[in-house]
Amino acid sequence: MSEFLKLAYELIAKIIYNIVQCFVALFHLLFTGWAEYGVIFGTYFWDLSPVAKILAIILALILIAIPCLIVVVLVRHFILNIRLKADHEDNSTLYREIGRLNKQVLELIDEKNKLLALKVNAMGGTERIPYMGASALTEDRINLPTVGNVTGGAPVEYGPNGEVIPGNADINIENVGEGKHLGTVTVEKDDSMDATQIKAVRFPKLSLVDQKYVDYVKPVYDNSITLQQFTEGYRLFAASQMKLYYTPEIVRRFVAGMAASKLLILEGISGTGKTSLPYSFSRYMLNPATIVSVQPSYRDRTELLGYFNEFSKRFNETEFLRALYEATYREDPSLIVLDEMNLARIEYYFAEMLSILEMPSHDEWVIDLVPTGWPKDPAHIVDGKIMVSESIWFVGTANNDDSTFTITDKVYDRAIPIELNERANAFECDPYPACPISSEHLQAMFMQAKQDYPISDATIEKMNRLDLYLQTRFKLAFGNRIIKQMYDFIPVYVACGGSEIDGLDYIIARKVLKKFESLNVSFVRDEIKELIEYIDKTFGKTKMEDSRAYLTRIQNFY
């Protein structure tokens, strides 16, 4: 045993000795050894050449910098440890404060959930939905908080879990907003409904439209006016009442466009009155247009029509939907303006409407908003569907710049494009009154124009020859839709004071020749020149100015 202790002693002593020697050597390296270093440096330095002396000085500086750097690192590390220990108590205080704030957040979230439960009840019911999530909807009878709660009457008392203490949970809402009677709001189930399909007001904005038209008295329509009087009267109204000036040609195209399509697209540079035209036109008919500002984020139909919120059981209504619904009550033409409509892709957010308007029967102009109908739905929402009125027109404004999307042929084919690239000259006139007109009379004037001013056989023959030429040389055709629009547009254009050839010229330039933009025009530049010559030969050199100018412009552009 003594020999083992002797072994352990010598072994441990040697290890301790070596460790001490390491520290001694390190101390000698960093501190006490500088005298020896200096002696060695002085012994050789004075005998060195100039270059060797410079190198010796550099070597000495490097050797001095290394221990200095080690000392700085050790000192910084020591100071950092001291600071961390000093901050420990402050960190503990901070952690306690964070814990307190988290507790407050949880309390606020709980309070918010209770308020949301109250909000669900406020959308319909005579008993409050307890604060217990969706399971509360399985109750057969649900009460709203009373008006007294809001106006200072007897409060409703709740239990610890959010349940209502019986005795004061009934509600009868009267004289709400402008003294109107809204009746008793009740939320009850019937045997034919799911537990979540309660008699609630899902469309509050549309329900307000129902109330607005309860006592609505329609204006006295001027159903004896002619199309030419109607268009000329609008120019005088816009100039005298609104200081807006448009050429007779633009107004004729706008009215004739309404006869040919339910969608009009006003294109041109900024400041030419694209938005003002439909706005003032609707004022002329005493039915102000609804202006919908299209946003670049529009991607689907919900941007225009809204969507049903499954949590609140309410439909998120938009101004577009409200205007669409209000048009079902009116007999006069209604305009919805999609301002800057090509900031987003039209064929994305407006696709469903484009398809619906192409349906041959008006009975098919139906939009599904929600899967099923509820008893409290607005009067003109039948089985969750809304009918698109025949008295409604959509007018889009479009700028062609780097911030917008190109309008595709799918949209152009279904619409009537109208270019406004220059301002009309101002003129003085006496004040001219508005002209309320029924949509039925406007449509009747369109039909009468088709009877009174049918397209002549000579024009049809020239049009067919041009169609054959375009098919042979450019693989372009008029198409059935464009032919139908021609037969609707040109007679109304003539009835508004224009000429047949000018109406044909405009449709060909904007609906047919515009397709050249989708072709590689650089390869058909010579053919375009021949096309211009063919148009001059067929229609006359003084006719078809729009088509000739358009072809010349795209030829020079490319």
Index terms:
alpha/beta, Rossmann fold, 558 residues, 51% helix, five-stranded parallel sheet, 4 domains
What is shown here, in short?
The chain is an alpha/beta fold. It contains 19 helices and twelve strands.
How would you characterize this protein structure?
With 558 residues, this protein is α/β, with parallel strands linked by helices. It has four domains: 33-103; 123-198, no CATH class; 227-419, P-loop containing nucleotide triphosphate hydrolases (Rossmann fold, 3-Layer(aba) Sandwich), CATH 3.40.50.300; 453-557. It is 51% helix and 8% strand. The chain has a five-stranded parallel β-sheet, sandwiched between helices. Strands 8-10-9 form a three-stranded antiparallel β-sheet. A two-stranded antiparallel sheet has the order 1-2. A hairpin with a 4-residue loop joins strand 5 and strand 6. Helix 15 (457-474) runs antiparallel to helix 18. The chain starts with a helix and ends with a helix.
**CATH superfamily descriptor of the largest domain:** P-loop containing nucleotide triphosphate hydrolases
Report helical residue fraction: 40-55%
Question: Pairing-aware structural class of the strands and helices?
Answer: alpha/beta
Low-confidence stretches: 123-199
In the CATH scheme, what's the topology name of the largest domain? Rossmann fold
The tally of helices reads 19
Global mean pLDDT: 80
Strand content: 5-15%
Question: How large, in whole angstroms, is the Cα Rg?
Answer: 42 Å
Distance between the termini: 108 Å
CATH architecture of the largest domain: 3-Layer(aba) Sandwich
CATH class division of the largest domain: Alpha Beta
The best one-word shape is elongated
How many extended strands?
12
Largest beta sheet: what is the strand line-up? 4-7-11-3-12
What is the total number of structural domains? 4
Biggest pleated-sheet summary: 5 strands, parallel
